[in-house]
C-alpha cells in the first residue's frame, strides 16, 4: 500500500505490453494513433512513450517511419504550430523558442524550416519589436535605477528571454531614443 505522499505512475505503461504485442506493428500503430488522437506529438515524444510502454524499438521506428510518410507525424508542422502559438504572445526571442523545441526532440533542420515557413506566412518576424515589448513590460521595475545599471539589467533580461546580442543592442538603442524623446 502506498503511504501518504507516495507517487504512483498511472498510465505510464506500468507492467508494459505483452511480449507477443511488443513486436507487433499493428499493436504499435494502434498505440501510436491513440497517443496522436489526444494531441499533436513529435516523433521523439512518440518513440519515447512507445518504448516506455514496452514496444520493441525496431518496430516503433518502422511504424513511426510509416506514420511520418503519410503525414500523421510531422515535426516541421509541430514546430511551426508551436512557434506560431508562442511568437508575439510571449516576449521571447528565437533562441529561447528554438531551445524549447529542441527539448521536445525537434531536429535543428526541422526548426529552421518551421521558422522560415512561419516568417513567410506572417510576412517576417520583428524580433526587435518583440524585444521592445519585453522592455516595455519591465520598464517600471527598473525606472529608478542608475542609467548604466538599468541598461545592464535590461540587457540581462533580454538575454534570459532568448534574444541575440544584435537584437538586444537595437532594442536598447530604440528604447534610449524613446526615453530621450519623453524628457
What would you say this structure looks like, in words?
This protein has helices at 19-22, 25-38, 43-52, 57-69, 75-86, 94-103, 108-122, 127-142, 147-160, 165-182. The chain has 183 residues and is mainly alpha-helical. It folds into 3 domains: 21-69; 75-122; 127-182, Arc Repressor Mutant, subunit A (Orthogonal Bundle), CATH 1.10.10. Helix 5 crosses helix 7, helix 8 (127-142) packs across helix 10 (165-182) and helix 9 (147-160) crosses helix 10. Mean pLDDT is 82; it is low at 1-14.
What is the gist of this entry?
This protein has helices at 19-22, 25-38, 43-52, 57-69, 75-86, 94-103, 108-122, 127-142, 147-160, 165-182. The chain has 183 residues and is mainly alpha-helical. The N and C termini lie far apart (69 Å).
Q: How are the SSEs ordered, and which strands pair?
A:
Layout: H1 19-22, H2 25-38, H3 43-52, H4 57-69, H5 75-86, H6 94-103, H7 108-122, H8 127-142, H9 147-160, H10 165-182
Helix pairs in contact: 2-4, 3-4, 5-7, 8-9, 8-10, 9-10
Which properties best describe this structure?
183 residues; Arc Repressor Mutant, subunit A; 10 helices
Amino acid at each position: 500500500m502506498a503511504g501518504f505522499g507516495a507517487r504512483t505512475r498511472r498510465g505510464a505503461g506500468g507492467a508494459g505490453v505483452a511480449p507477443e504485442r511488443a513486436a507487433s506493428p499493428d499493436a504499435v500503430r494502434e498505440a501510436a494513433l491513440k497517443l496522436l488522437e489526444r494531441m499533436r506529438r513529435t516523433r521523439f515524444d512518440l518513440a519515447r512513450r512507445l518504448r516506455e510502454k514496452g514496444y520493441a524499438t525496431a518496430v516503433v521506428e518502422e511504424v513511426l517511419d510509416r506514420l511520418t510518410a503519410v503525414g500523421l507525424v510531422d515535426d516541421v508542422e509541430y514546430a511551426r504550430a508551436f512557434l506560431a502559438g508562442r511568437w508575439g504572445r510571449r516576449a521571447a526571442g528565437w533562441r529561447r523558442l528554438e531551445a524549447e523545441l529542441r527539448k521536445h526532440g525537434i531536429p535543428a533542420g526541422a526548426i529552421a524550416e518551421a521558422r522560415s515557413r512561419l516568417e513567410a506566412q506572417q510576412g517576417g518576424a520583428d524580433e526587435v519589436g518583440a524585444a521592445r515589448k519585453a522592455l516595455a513590460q519591465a520598464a517600471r521595475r527598473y525606472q529608478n535605477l542608475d542609467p548604466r545599471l538599468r541598461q545592464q539589467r535590461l540587457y540581462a533580461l533580454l538575454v534570459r528571454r532568448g534574444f541575440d546580442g544584435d537584437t538586444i543592442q537595437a532594442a536598447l538603442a530604440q528604447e534610449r531614443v524613446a526615453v530621450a524623446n519623453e524628457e
